[in-house]
Each structure stands twice: as structure tokens, then as C-alpha cells.
Design brief:
heterodimer, A: 5-stranded antiparallel β-sheet, 36 helices, 32 strands, transferase (chain A), EC 2.7.13.3 (chain A), HATPase_dom (chain A)
């Protein structure tokens, strides 16, 4: 029971725990729901949605988990419950069944035994009675005969016999024989006192002889009670001997004597009697004793047996088995019970009691229950088996059996407490049940806990998964939206650019307006600047979005990487000089000259990077380094010093293994180029190194205030770099500033050539004195030169320079002649020595013009000082853009014509060296050739002059006439050309020729200089038109006249030496000159050319090297029309822009900071168009192919307003036809003009036929669209060598469309609606050289 | 005096058209192109535009009425209309055309019909304004001629 007590409490604990857990869980979820809204309030709008989303998701997942848990638990509970029930049921039922059957047997057996006892008693009683009867009959018959015999004998005999019987049956209570005559003999055994009595009566009338009397009347019926005296004798129970005296007793007092009356019918009678002396009922049987002969009844024999033994038996049984038993008669009188309760009632004599009235309450209630249940309608055999009868407080089995004796049917009832039979079973069953239940609850609890633990794991996983899914979802959405954004922006490019173009165009129109006040003009200019800035920003964003949306297509074309970068550095250096920042280009020698890639994008990358650096660098330097990594992406050392060293090492190594590197290039057509952009600006915080490449990200937000910008530049750079298969990142740098490192994967052209000029200077043992202001560039340059085998000195300021000069030349003085400086003498010395010796002039001094003190006039003294070294060394001057013209003139006057613009980089240095070496050679050769010439001095001088001239003219003419340009170029490099590559005798005449011309040029040059100075010092706009015009007219006309003459001479002279193709040039040149004359009345062109003149004359010589000239010559001569090769056009464009830009800057110092405006072509033209000009397109004839009548009309009007002649056609077919006609005419003209003897005829031919200078081609047209038409035109042109510029006009603004346009052979691209300024600038850029 | 009033009226009309978004800056460019050398330029262009648009709209209506719509043709016409309207500066017509083209690309007939109606609506609205404008201009012209005489 203790276990049973413990188990419930043990069971309660997990239950309680579980309950608690559930409660906390519910609370938890409630808390969560209740906390979330607060969070929402705190975090505000953007997170709200997400939170909502999460909350609902979270809650729903909680609920689902909760429900799942509950379901699993319920299922577990059901399972365990069923198992328990089944187990309990089977154990219980089987036990119960078996025990029930056993119990039934037991009960039956139990009841059967007393009944059997009763039965035995009855039988034995009957037997005894029968025996007594038989014996009595015998005795009577024996004594019948002698009737006279003493009845006493008979009685004695009977007594003995009866005693014998009586003593043999101890169970007998009494045997009585009552004779007919009323004599009674009886033996009685008192069981209580264990005494045996003999009872007899004596008849009163035969009082003398009792026996006799008795005998005598034996067969006679007599009134027995009448007179009889009853006696009782005590007997020895064993022997039957008389033990005591007889005592008189009242009749029938002790026992009931069966009388004759009872046996009248002669059958045995049974009944239950009650004796006075015994508590128990008695069973009495009576049989008559018949006369043997007569058959009359002579006596009645009665036997009584106490039923007490039955009761005792019952008691014994009950003692052993517990329970209650009783026997009743059919009527319900209790005959025997297992209790000690009295069976008889003493109320009115001793009587049997009904079972229902029994004192023992169990028996009574049992009897009552039976009565109630069955009443009088007992089943036939009276058998009742009832279980689970509640009597009192206990359950009992009640079984009753029926014993159908004749005359005495008996009913036995047994009441056995259930506990006795099933007590243990029930207990065990209960215990089992309890154990089972507790076990199952334990299992359930453990199971639930397990489920909770397991599902909590699962639910965590589920939660994580749900979060992951939601994250993925969110990411997808975000990506989609950002993609949409990019797509949108990319698609919007047209829509965005159009209004901007309109705004800018309208502003230009406004600027044109003459009636603006100065303030208005300033405001409009400001607006225009802002608009341009906005457009640039838009372009940036659109570029970015284009890259991001994957619409940017990188083109793959060969280009000269070095030249592009040099151009870039040139451009930025101008900007940097004002900032006191040096811009240095440091490209390693092993870099391939020509690579394949998208040059525009690469330039954009470096433009962005450098402009970014410039923005943040207030002083110091910006270095653009580049090197080639071959196949191995070797790690770069961190430290800048070590970097340089390693770079050097790298270079050296690559030089040594050049052939190996070359092989590698050939193997894989891709090459990885590494670049570094280093500055000494404010630097970037290391934590921002990654984020600066993000959109709209700036390292320091405050920089926006100081420097402006949107933070898009670096993002675009990174996107572009990634697109080109490279990487960009910020690298740790020693000292202040930022170091950006990027790699680009570029294609290699098929015939790759690595720069291979290095070794050729080795033989000249040159010494170089670098007097440069910038420390970094100087050190890099000197290092490079030293690697090349030059000896270098470095000087950073004037004093240093003078010191070095004095030092060096004092030594030299001692070494060379001590005579005063005589140029011819000095030249003579090397002549006599070897060819390669530079003749004492083996010292090159590169002087930065900024070393001179320009603020005062000291520079003149300084120049004079330097002049004394002129003969001993070669000077190369580095000019900056703002170097005053006076200095230049002075320099030129002094014979320093080797001038270059800042910054100094390797290509320029190489060119200088080339020039020096060649000059040296030239002098040597000339010396050897003209040993006997007496005009040594003059020759030299004129040569110097000549080269000045060439510079001036080359720039001058370049814009007016390409033909002239070409010629001038030929002349410019004339001297170098002929000396280096050809046999001297063929050049000799032309040289002298040029000499002649150059002498004529001197005054001309001066005239040309005049407007230059004006342009520099004065505002361009305020410049008097007339003045310029007349002045220039005069100058240029003169120039042309003499040039014309020169050309003629030149041609004649050159027939023998140059190929016949050159002959074609002449008429063209004439035509070109004619055209140029016609154009001279346009001040714009003139002005522009003059501006350019100033700046080009420095650039040109350095840009063109020998190879280029050769190429150009061949190209030119093969071309009939005054066209130009693309490369040249590009260069020219570049130089034009730059020069205009510079002019603009010079004139408008206020706008210095907007320098990079003019990077864009259209801007540049817009600026140049500030020069008042009504007919920029004057004289041009334009073919307009446009199907839309409205657009046709509009465009025609626009163009006509600009002075162009427009012929409009409706579709591509007509356009092609028109071009065909023109080409035929051209062909004719060409054929005619090849005869070259009649210039006038050529001219007239030209005027007769309409010649289109340009085609504006709509892309979408009926019959033949723009692309097809262009293809056709290009096909037609294929044989002729002509190239008519075709400009696409399309409503599509995508770069892919642009690419498509350019692919089919169009030269430029305009978007609808047409912006007139852009159109004009485009047309001008394409046609200018054709004029 | 009357001429100046008329001019003011004309200016007001044009300005209101700009304000309503019927016209955009392209029209300004057109106006700018008109000067002494080609006095009726704007009128000419507008007339051209009207004629052209009328033709295209008739074609489009015809095409849309057919059971099987040839979307490529429709697209070509709409593109033309878009080009001409954008070069005149008829902004609303242009926008409607862009919408129309989108439906066209989707081959959405219902949308096309709706878009066509929008285009027509915008066009007629614009045309009525243009007519008023042209009338005004012609009257101004007449006055000026008279004054010269």
C-alpha cells in the first residue's frame, strides 16, 4: 500500500511540471505577442512590416508546433492508456474467470457438504429407524406367541435391542418406541451434558407388574396420557448400565416421543422437531412397527437426530473458509446455520425461526436479499448464484442449493464474502492497476518531456528554416527590386538625358543671346555648369546602372594603353599644377604597347581614380603605376619602398627573361595588368576600405562638404574593373595617403610586341641632369634612366642646378678644350672620333621651367646663365601650361627648341633622348657630309629656325587643312626623318629647300605669334573680332601663299626621292588650300586654329615618332580625298580639345576648377561655341535620311539655321542612291584630277556635283532601314577609299543600339529628339578635317 | 494693338499647353527655329504632324478593327506616331504611344484598344489646341501683313 501511496504523488510531480511548462510556454507566447507591438513603436516604420511578418509567422509556427506537440502527446497518452487497459484487462479477466470458476466450485462444495451431512443424517436416521422397526418386529413376533409371557421380558428385550442400536449411533438424539398400549421406551442422549438417559413409563393400572400390564395391553390402544408415569434413568453411556435412580419426569417433557398417531398411514414420516432441551432443531423420523402376521401396527418407532452436527460442520467449514451458511426448509425456517445464533425462538414455546428473522444480520440480510430478489418465485431447482451482493458494507457471493428430500425439501444458502475468494485477486488487480497507471503516467510524462525536447529541437530547426526561407524570400525580393531599379534606370537613360540635353541646349541658346546683361550671363553660365554637372552625375548613375543591370557591353578593340594613360596624365597634370600636386606616370617597360579591350572604359576607370585622388590630395604627388604580371599573380610587398625595389627587381627580371615573357604572351591571349594609383591625400580609414566601393559611399561624410561628389565614381570603377575580370582594392600604405591597387585582364593582340627600344641608348653613354621640381617624378625618372644605363644627377631647385652644373662643367672644362665656346669646334671633335660619340654633348639637362624665377625678370638672367652651357649640353625644357609666352619666345630665341609639356614620363623622355641622339647623329653626319661646306654656321642656325617654324606651322595648319597639316608634318620631322633612315643625298635638296622656305617664314611666324599672345592674355570673348580676323587673315594668307609655293617646289624636288603616290597630293593640296582660303573668313576656325597653334606645337613633336610619320605618309598618299586615318583624327581631336580647353582656362581663370568639364566632347564644343558664330556648319552639305516628315522638317530647319545645305530623302533606299550618285561624281572628279595638270578643272568638277559631307541617318525607315543603308553605303565605298561620315539618329538610347550603329559602320550617334548643339558638335567633329 | 493682344492670347495658349503638359521643351525648340527666314515653320510642322497623325490613327483603327490584329504593323505605326509626336513635343501623345507599344508587345488586344482610345483622345485634345493656335497665328500674320501694307 505504501507503494500505492507513493505512486500518485510521484505521478503528480511530472504532471505538475508539465503543467508548469505548458503555462510558461503559453506565457512566453503571450509575452512575445505583447512585447512585439512595443518594439514596433520603438523601431518605427521600416521595421514594422518585417516585424509584423515575423510575428505572424512566429506565432503561427508556435501554434503549429504547439498543436503538433499536443497531438503527439495525446496520441502517446492514448497508446499508453490502451496498453495499460489491455494489460489490466487481460490479467484481471483471466484471473477472475479462473478464480470465479474455482470459487463457484468451492462454494458449491462448501454447501454440498452440510447438505450431504444432512442427507447422511437423514439416511442414518432412516436406517436406524428401519433397523429399529425390523428389530422391534422381530422381538415382538418373538414374544407374540407366548402371549402370556412377561411383557417385561419383551420390554427388556426391546430395551437391549434398542440400546444396542442407540449406542451404536452416537449421533442419535433419541430412539423412542411407543407401544400400542401406551408403553413407551426411549433412550435419550443429552449431548450437552453427555449423559444418556433411559426413559420409560409405567402404566398406572398395572402398577404391580409393569411389564405384564404393558404386555397385556400391548396391542391394545389405550389412552396413553391418561395415566402413565414417566421415569428417567441415567445410564452409563458406554455400557448402558444403570447409573442412577429412576426419576419421575413429566411426560413428554424431555423428548418428543413419536406416537402412533404419527404413523397412521404406515409410511415413514419426517419432520423437523424442536426439543425443549436442545437449542438446535431435531430431525425426527417415525415408522410403524407392524405385527408380523397381522400387519397391524403394534408400535411406533421414532428416531430423532439432532441437526446440530450439521451446524457444527457448517461452523467448521465456515471457520475454515469464512462466510456464512444456513439451511432452511422450503418454507424458510432455518434448520442450521454456521453461526452460534439461536435457531429457536422462545416467545411462545420453542419454535423455528424464519431465516429473514434471523438474529445474525448477515444471514438475515442475505435471506432478505434473496427474498427481495426472488420473492416466492424461486427458480425451479432453487438454485441461485449471485455475485457481488452488497450486504452491509461488504460484497458477498450468495449461492443457494436445493435438496429435494421427500417430505423435507431443504434449501442451503452460502454467503461467502467476496473478499475471501477474490480479496487477493482484487487487491492484486488494484495494485496492478495502480502500478500500471502510475507507470503509464510516468511513461506519458517522460514521453511528453521527450516530445517537448525533441520538438523544441525540431521547432528550433523549423524556426530557423522559416527564418531562412523568409530571409531568402526577402533577399530575392530585394534583388528583384534592385534589379528592377537598375533596369529602370538603364531604360530611363533616354528619358533622363533628353531633358538634360534640352536644358543645356537651351542654355547655350540663351548664352548666344547678345542682349544678356553681365549678371544674367554669369547666372546662365552658372546654370549651365550646374546642368553639366548634373548631366555628368546622371551619366555616372546610368553608367553604374548599366553595369549593374548587365547591359554594358565592353568592346574589344586594340588600343595603345600607354598612350591613353599618358593622355590622361597630361590632362590631369594641368589640373594638378594648380594644386601643387605632381602627377606621375610610371609604367614598367615590360607592359605591352598594344592591348585589346575597351579603351574608353579603361580611361574612365583611371579618370575616376585619378580625379578622386586629386580631389583629396592637396599637396604631394599622385602616381599611376602599371606593370605586367605575366602569368603569375605574385604577391606584392606592402611597403612602398620595398615595392619600388621589388618592382625594379621585377623589371630587371622581366628584362632578362624577355623572350620567355613574350612566349607566355603568345600562349595565352589574355594578360593581367596591375595598376596602382597612389596619392598623398587624406587617406581612407582602413575600416572603410571595402565600403568606399559601394554606391553613394564616401569614406568620410564630411568630405562631401569639402570636396563634393556623390560617391559613385569608385563604385563605377569597381564594377568596370570586375567586368574586365580584375579586382580593385585599397592597400595599406606607408605614410599619408591612399594606395589603390587594381588588376585588369586584357586581351593581347595577335602580333604582340613588347617595347624593345631599351638597349639602343646604351651605346650613347649619355649623362642626364634632371632638374625637376617634383621629387617623386624626378626620383622615378632618374631610377629608370639609371637602369637604362644613363648617368644621372638630380636637382630640385635653381641653386642645386647651378651647383651641379658648375661642378660638372668644371670637370668637363678641364677635360675638353679650354677655348671659348665655339659650336663648330665642338662639333668637330666628335666628328673625328667615333660615330656614336655625342661629341661632348653627352649631357642632357632637363630643366623644369618652374625652377626659373618667373615672378620677376630674374629668369632672364637665369637663362643667360644657362646659356653658357648650351654648347656643352643639350637642354630640354619642361613647360607647364601657364608658362608665359615671353619665356617661350625667349627660349626659342636662344635656340632651346626642345620643349615638352609637363609631366615628364618615359615616353616623353624617350622622345627627348631620340631627338638628342638623332640630332647628335645628324650633326655628325652633316659634319661628315659637308666637311667642305662654308656655310656651317648658317646652316645650323637655319636648321634651328626651321624646326621652330615647323612646330608653329604644323599646329597652325592642322585645323585649317589636313593636307597642309600632313605636309607640315612631313616637314616637321623632315630633318629627323631623312637623317635617320634614308641615304643623305636624296634628302639634301629638300633640306636646302626647306631651308629656303624657312627663311621666308620668319616674319610670318612673328605675325602669327601676335594673336597668340593676345589670346593668352585677354579674354577670348572680349577679343576684338576684326582685329583677329584681319591680323590673322594677313598672316594666314601669307602663310598659304608661301606654303603653296613651297608645296610646288617641294613636290618638284621630291619626285625623285618619294614615291609616285605623292603626286596625287598636289592637286588635293591645291584644292585643300583653295578651300582653306574660302574658309578663312570664318573667324571661329581661325581663332581656334590660333589657339591650338600655341599648344600643339609643343605636343606634336613628342607625340609623333618616326614610325607614325611613315605610316601617315603612306596612308595619306594612298588616299585620294583629304581624309584622315582614324588614329590621327583621334589625336587631333584630343589636341583640339585640350588646346581649346587650355585657351578657355587661360581666358577665364575664374572657372579653373571646372577643368574637367571639357573632358567630354560636347562640353568642349559647347565651350568653344561661346565664340560668337552663327553658321558653324556653313558650307557643309548634309544628306538627311528620315522618313518622318516632321522630323525631317525639324532637322532640316535646324541644320539650315546653322548654315548647312540639307538634302532630305525619305528612306534608306534614296539615301543609298544619293550616295551612289555622289560617289560616281567623286570618282569622275578623281579621275580627272589625277591628271593634276589642270587645277581649275578639278575645282569646277567639285562644284558641279553635289558632294555630301555627312549623312544623318534615321535608324528606322521603310524600305531600307538605317543599319542596312549604312552597310550598303560602306560596301559601295569599299573600293574607293572614301569614307563619308554617317551619323545615326535614333530614338533608342541604349548603349547596345549605339554599339549596333557603330558596328554597321556609322561614325556617331544622336538620339531623338535631336539636340541641335550636340548635333552641330558631332557634325563638326566629323567634318572639320574635310573642309 | 490687336496684333499684340492676339500675340498675348497666343502666348497664353502656348503657356497653358506647356503647363498642362500637352507640350514639352521640344516644341520650344521648334518655336526657336521659327524666325524671319521661315515664318510659318511651326504651323507647317504642326500641320504636318496633324496630317501624319490622322493618317496613322486611321490606319491603326483599321488594324485594330480586324479580328486578327497584326501587332508588328501596329507597333510600326505606333513607333512612327511616337517619333513624330516626340519631335513636335506632343508629350501626352508620346506617353500614350509608349503605353500603347507596351500593350502591343504583350499582344494585349484589349489594352491596345484602350491605348488607342487614349492616344486618340490626347491627339484630338491637342489638335483642337493646335487649331486655335494656328488660327491665332494666321490672324497675327494677317495683321502684320496689313500693317506692312
Amino acid at each position: 500500500m505504501a507503494g500505492a501511496h507513493q505512486t500518485p504523488s510521484a505521478m503528480m510531480k511530472p504532471l505538475a511540471k508539465l503543467f508548469k511548462k505548458l503555462q510558461t510556454f503559453i506565457k512566453c507566447t503571450e509575452n512575445r505577442t505583447s512585447i512585439l507591438p512595443q518594439k514596433k513603436i520603438i523601431h518605427g516604420q521600416p521595421e514594422e512590416e518585417e516585424f509584423n511578418y515575423q510575428t505572424t509567422r512566429c506565432l503561427s509556427s508556435y501554434y503549429s508546433i504547439f498543436v503538433a506537440r499536443l497531438a503527439i502527446m495525446v496520441m502517446l497518452a492514448i497508446l499508453i492508456g490502451m496498453l495499460t487497459m489491455l494489460t489490466w484487462h487481460f490479467t484481471k479477466v483471466y484471473t477472475m474467470n479462473s478464480i470465479n470458476s474455482l470459487a463457484y466450485g468451492l462454494r458449491y462444495e462448501l454447501l454440498q457438504r452440510p447438505i450431504l451431512r444432512v442427507w447422511n443424517i437423514l439416511n442414518s436416521t432412516v436406517e436406524i429407524t428401519m433397523a429399529q422397526v425390523k428389530l422391534s418386529e422381530y422381538v415382538i413376533s418373538h414374544y407374540e406367541k407366548p402371549l402370556s409371557q412377561e411383557p417385561a421380558e419383551l420390554h427388556q428385550m426391546m430395551r437391549d435391542v434398542t440400546w444396542a442400536l442407540f449406542s451404536s449411533r452416537t449421533a442419535l438424539d433419541a430412539i423412542t418406541i411407543s407401544y400400542r398400549n401406551g408403553f413407551v421406551q426411549a433412550f435419550h442422549r443429552d449431548h450437552r451434558s453427555n449423559t444418556t438417559f433411559y426413559i420409560y413409563c409405567e402404566l398406572v393400572n398395572s402398577s404391580v407388574n409393569q411389564g405384564k400390564a404393558h404386555h397385556g395391553h400391548i396391542h391394545k390402544p389405550r389412552d396413553r396420557p391418561a395415566s402413565a408415569i414417566w421415569y428417567r434413568e441415567r445410564l452409563d453411556p458406554v455400557t448402558g448400565e444403570k447409573k442412577g435412580d429412576r426419576r419421575q419426569i413429566p411426560p413428554d417433557d424431555l423428548i418428543k416421543i413419536a406416537g402412533l398417531a404419527e404413523v397412521q398411514d404406515g409410511a415413514a414420516s419426517w419432520r423437523v422437531a424442536v426439543s425443549k432441551f436442545t437449542d438446535s432443531p431435531l430431525l425426527s423420523a417415525a415408522l410403524p412397527v407392524r405385527h408380523p402376521s397381522g400387519g397391524s401396527i403394534v408400535a411406533a418407532v421414532g428416531v430423532t437426530t439432532a441437526l446440530k452436527s450439521v451446524g457444527q460442520l457448517m461452523k467448521e467449514l465456515v471457520d475454515f473458509h469464512s462466510g456464512y451458511m444456513y439451511l432452511t426448509s422450503l418454507e424458510g425456517y432455518v434448520l442450521a446455520t454456521s453461526t452460534d445464533a439461536p435457531l429457536l425462538r422462545n416467545t411462545t414455546g420453542r419454535k423455528l425461526m424464519m431465516a429473514t428473522d434471523f438474529e445474525d444480520h448477515i444471514i438475515r440480510s442475505g435471506a432478505e436479499w434473496l427474498q427481495r430478489a426472488y420473492g416466492n418465485k424461486f427458480p425451479i431447482n432453487h438454485e441461485v448464484h449471485a455475485e457481488n451482493v452488497l450486504l452491509g458494507n461488504q460484497r458477498y457471493y450468495i449461492d443457494s442449493f436445493f435438496l429435494n428430500l421427500t417430505r423435507l425439501p431443504l434449501v442451503g444458502v452460502i454467503i461467502i464474502p467476496r473478499k475471501y475468494i477474490l480479496g487477493k485477486v482484487d487487491q492484486i488487480g488494484f495494485t496492478t492497476l495502480v502500478i500500471l497507471i502510475s507507470a503509464s503516467i510516468c511513461f506519458l510524462a517522460i514521453g511528453c518531456v521527450c516530445i517537448l525536447i525533441l520538438t523544441s529541437g525540431v521547432s528550433k530547426a523549423m524556426k530557423l528554416r522559416a527564418e531562412l526561407i523568409s530571409q531568402l524570400d526577402a533577399r530575392r525580393r530585394a534583388e528583384a527590386s534592385s534589379n528592377y531599379k537598375s533596369q529602370f534606370l538603364a531604360n530611363m537613360s533616354h528619358e533622363l538625358r533628353t531633358p538634360m540635353a534640352a536644358v543645356i541646349g537651351l542654355l547655350d541658346i540663351l548664352i548666344y543671346d547678345d542682349c544678356l546683361t553681365n549678371e544674367q550671363f554669369a547666372t546662365v553660365t552658372q546654370i549651365r555648369k550646374c546642368s553639366t554637372a548634373l548631366l555628368r552625375l546622371l551619366n555616372n548613375i546610368l553608367d553604374l546602372s548599366k553595369v549593374e543591370s548587365g547591359k554594358l557591353v565592353l568592346e574589344e578593340a586594340e588600343f595603345d594603353l600607354g598612350r591613353e594613360l599618358e593622355g590622361l596624365v597630361d590632362m590631369f597634370s594641368v589640373q594638378c599644377i594648380n594644386h601643387n600636386v605632381e602627377t606621375i606616370l610610371d609604367l614598367s617597360d615590360d607592359m605591352p604597347k598594344v592591348v585589346r579591350g575597351d579603351s574608353a572604359r579603361i580611361v574612365q576607370i583611371f579618370t575616376n581614380l585619378i580625379s578622386n585622388s586629386i580631389k583629396f590630395t592637396s599637396e604631394g604627388h599622385i602616381i599611376l603605376r602599371g606593370w605586367c604580371d605575366g602569368s603569375n599573380h605574385s604577391s606584392r610587398p606592402e611597403c612602398s619602398e620595398a615595392q619600388k625595389m621589388s618592382q625594379c627587381a621585377l623589371r630587371n627580371r622581366s628584362k632578362q627573361h624577355e623572350s620567355i615573357v613574350k612566349k607566355e604572351y603568345q600562349k595565352n591571349d589574355k594578360i593581367t595588368l596591375w595598376f596602382e594609383v597612389e596619392d598623398t591625400g587624406c587617406g581612407i580609414d582602413p575600416s572603410k576600405w571595402e565600403s568606399v566601393f559601394e554606391s553613394f559611399e564616401q569614406a568620410d561624410p564630411s568630405t562631401t562638404r569639402m570636396h563634393g561628389g556623390t560617391g559613385l565614381g569608385l563604385c563605377i570603377v569597381r564594377n568596370l574593373v570586375n567586368k574586365m575580370g580584375g579586382e580593385i582594392n585599397v592597400v595599406k600604405k606607408d605614410g599619408q595617403g591612399t594606395l589603390m591597387q587594381l588588376s585588369l585582364l586584357l586581351g593581347m593582340p595577335e602580333d604582340c610586341t613588347v617595347n624593345s627600344f631599351q638597349t639602343e641608348f646604351g651605346k650613347y653613354s649619355l649623362k642626364v641632369l634632371l632638374a625637376l621640381h617634383g621629387k617623386q617624378s624626378r626620383s622615378i625618372m632618374s631610377q629608370w634612366l639609371r637602369e637604362k644605363g644613363f648617368f644621372t644627377w638630380e636637382a630640385s631647385e635653381w641653386n642645386g642646378l647651378t651647383q651641379i652644373l658648375q661642378q660638372v662643367f668644371q670637370e668637363n672644362m678641364q677635360w675638353s678644350t679650354s677655348e671659348p665656346i665655339n659650336l663648330s669646334r665642338i662639333r668637330v671633335v666628335p666628328r673625328e672620333n667615333s660615330i656614336h660619340k655625342m661629341g661632348g654633348l653627352d649631357i642632357l639637362i632637363v630643366v623644369d621651367i618652374s625652377l626659373l624665377d618667373q615672378s620677376t625678370n630674374i629668369w632672364k638672367q637665369q637663362l643667360i646663365f644657362l646659356d653658357q652651357y648650351r654648347g656643352k649640353a643639350k637642354f630640354a625644357w619642361m613647360l607647364s601650361h601657364d608658362t608665359s609666352n615671353a619665356i617661350k619666345v625667349e627660349l626659342r630665341r636662344k635656340g632651346h627648341f626642345l620643349m615638352i609639356n609637363k609631366p615628364l614620363y618615359k615616353t616623353k623622355m624617350t622622345n627627348i633622348l631620340h631627338a638628342i641622339v638623332n640630332e647628335g647623329n645628324f650633326e655628325n653626319e652633316k659634319g661628315s657630309n659637308q666637311l667642305n661646306s662654308s656655310m656651317d654656321e648658317d646652316l645650323h642656325e637655319s636648321h634651328d629656325l626651321d624646326s621652330i617654324h615647323f612646330d608653329a606651322i604644323s599646329s597652325d595648319v592642322s585645323d585649317i587643312s589636313d593636307m597642309d597639316n600632313r605636309d607640315s608634318k612631313i616637314n616637321t620631322f623632315y630633318s629627323e626623318e631623312e637623317i635617320t633612315e634614308r641615304n643623305p643625298e636624296s634628302h639634301q635638296p629638300s633640306y636646302s629647300n626647306s631651308q629656303k622656305i624657312s627663311t621666308q617664314r620668319v616674319p610670318l611666324d612673328k605675325i602669327i605669334k601676335k594673336p597668340n599672345i593676345l589670346l593668352e592674355t585677354e579674354n577670348l570673348i572680349n577679343m576684338s573680332k576684326d582685329f583677329t580676323e584681319t591680323d590673322k587673315h594677313g598672316g594666314i594668307i601669307m602663310d598659304y601663299s608661301c606654303r603653296y609655293g613651297y608645296n610646288k617646289d617641294n613636290k618638284k624636288n621630291m619626285i625623285s626621292s618619294i614615291t609616285d603616290n605623292l603626286q596625287d597630293i598636289k592637286p588635293q593640296a591645291v584644292v585643300g588650300n583653295e578651300d582653306a582660303f574660302l574658309k578663312l573668313n570664318q573667324p571661329h576656325d581661325g581663332g581656334e586654329s590660333v589657339i591650338e597653334q600655341e599648344y600643339q606645337w609643343n605636343v606634336k613633336p613628342t607625340l609623333y615618332n618616326k614610325g607614325d610619320i611613315k605610316q601617315k605618309m603612306i596612308a595619306k598618299t594612298s588616299m585620294a580625298s583629304p581624309g584622315n586615318t582614324h588614329a590621327e583624327g583621334m589625336e587631333k581631336q584630343l589636341s583640339t580639345e585640350r588646346s581649346v580647353e587650355l585657351a578657355y582656362r587661360g581666358s577665364r581663370l575664374l572657372e579653373n576648377q571646372d577643368m574637367h568639364y571639357s573632358v567630354h566632347k560636347n562640353d568642349c564644343v559647347a565651350l568653344s561655341s561661346l565664340v560668337p558664330d552663327q553658321n558653324p556648319l556653313g558650307g557643309l552639305c548634309i544628306l538627311l535620311a528620315e522618313d518622318n516628315p516632321i522630323l525631317q522638317r525639324v532637322a532640316t530647319t535646324m541644320l539650315e539655321k546653322k548654315g548647312a545645305k540639307v538634302i532630305a530623302v525619305g528612306d534608306g533606299m534614296q539615301a543609298v542612291d544619293a550616295i551612289k550618285c555622289m560617289l560616281c561624281a567623286e570618282e569622275n572628279k578623281r579621275q580627272n584630277s589625277t591628271h593634276q595638270d589642270d587645277v581649275a578643272e578639278g575645282l569646277s568638277e567639285l562644284q558641279k556635283y553635289t558632294s555630301f559631307d555627312l549623312v544623318l541617318m534615321d535608324c528606322q525607315m521603310p524600305k531600307l532601314d538605317g543599319y542596312e543603308a549604312t552597310k550598303t553605303i560602306r560596301n559601295i565605298e569599299a573600293g574607293t577609299g572614301l569614307h563619308i561620315p554617317i551619323v545615326a539618329v535614333t530614338a533608342h538610347a541604349m548603349s547596345s543600339d549605339e554599339a549596333k550603329c557603330l558596328e554597321v559602320g556609322m561614325d556617331a550617334y544622336l538620339t531623338k529628339p535631336i539636340d541641335s548643339k550636340l548635333m552641330v558638335s558631332t557634325i563638326l567633329s566629323l567634318t572639320k578635317r574635310d573642309v | 494693338m490687336a496684333a499684340t493682344a492676339l500675340k498675348e492670347q497666343l502666348n497664353g495658349l502656348v503657356n497653358s499647353m506647356f503647363a498642362e503638359g500637352l507640350l514639352d521643351e521640344q516644341f520650344q525648340q521648334l518655336q526657336m527655329l521659327q524666325d524671319g527666314s521661315n515664318p510659318g515653320f511651326v504651323a507647317e510642322v504642326v500641320t504636318l504632324f496633324c496630317e501624319d497623325s490622322e493618317r496613322i490613327l486611321t490606319e491603326l483603327t483599321k488594324l485594330m478593327d480586324q479580328a486578327l490584329v497584326d501587332y508588328s504593323k501596329v507597333d510600326a505605326y505606333v513607333h512612327q506616331l511616337k517619333g513624330s509626336s516626340s519631335s513636335v513635343g506632343a508629350q501626352n501623345v508620346k506617353l500614350a504611344c509608349i503605353q500603347f507599344r507596351q500593350f502591343c508587345e504583350e499582344n494585349n488586344k484589349e489594352g491596345c484598344v484602350r491605348a488607342l482610345n487614349v492616344v486618340k483622345h490626347e491627339y484630338y485634345r491637342l489638335r483642337s489646341k493646335f487649331e486655335t493656335m494656328l488660327q491665332l497665328e494666321s490672324r497675327i500674320q494677317a495683321y502684320e501683313n496689313k500693317q506692312q501694307n
